[in-house]
Amino acid sequence: MSVHVAQINFVPTAQGLAASEVFRQWPSLVDVAEAAASAGTRVSVIQAAAQPLHVMHNGIGYHFSDIGGAGTAAGRGRRFASLLEDIKADVLHVHGLDFARDAFAIAQCLPNLPIVFQDHANRPPPWWRRPQWRRWYKAASGVAFTAPELARPFTDAGLLDPRAQVFAIPESSCRFTRGSRARARAETGLYGDPCILWIGHLNAGKDPLTVLDGVALAAAKLPGLKLWCVFGDAPLLPAVQRRIERDRQLSGRVHLLGKVAHRRIEWLLRAADMFVSGSRRESCGYALLEAMACGVTPVVTDIPSFRALTGEVGHLWPCGDASRLADALIDAASTRRSPERVRAHFDGTLSFEAVGRQWADAYVQVLDGRRRRAR
Questions:
Q1: Could you tell me the pTM of the whole model?
Q2: Same domain, 204 and 320
Q3: Tens digit of pLDDT for each residue in 86-100?
């Protein structure tokens, strides 16, 4: 018999929001559930909501649980615990480490239910609140991060129970696929040798100015290089524009595309040779997942999540180091890893099936651990 896992999202939906709209606005709610189900795990999803509803979507039951009138964590915990008993869940998978209090309230009602937290770019609470949070985190049988190093702020602060297992599981996966690069370039107008794509906000955390510096240095050996930039929030846009305008190595070489509809991103990635990122911190890196799903070679910063995701197909460079970025771009251009090789890496470690296998193994481990302690 397969393990029955309930994945729970404590962030309530807006009043009157249809289930289909919830699935559209929160794709990871569906993606993580379907990844786990792909490995044979029986999955139910519990979603905090303003009104009760039960719907089936792609073979998975979604329970929209009315939390109206449950003004305290204890009250919500009793309500969720009742539902978990009704559906006979074996393991509870909590989206986000920020909801330790709510998970602890459920654990008070169901002390034998193993609980696994999944990191979603969460950070430890301020130091003066940590004693209470340590108590709440005792409810955790396991915690999953994209890379084990991302657990360090929590373990260094003594927040996690030493008995809680730490799992390295990608935060999600991606439905993009490879396609014809020639067709994609004809469709999008992208070109370059190499053709490099940036997808990310123009802010300090993504460090676009260092990326521009690295591209300018690399252009001396890669005269055909073109950089195409897709971005949303752009507080550094004026600085980026000035940097491009004043450097003849960048002017005419860097193209600012601005905001692009998500359905268009897949075509842009299929047209690119490389994906570049200057991120200083990521819990996962959804744009990076999308790039590798399309077979694009990643040239990204050497941060824990990117190291974990890219494996042997990535070209990594230290945060803030334009010279090392230039070296990485030149090396990637000379080695030219095939789209097939990058996609094979994605299929083996980052696809829905691969992520699902990792979740299935984690669920079994925490369930077995709880059973051993109960003897």
A1: 0.94
A2: yes
A3: 999 999 999 999 999
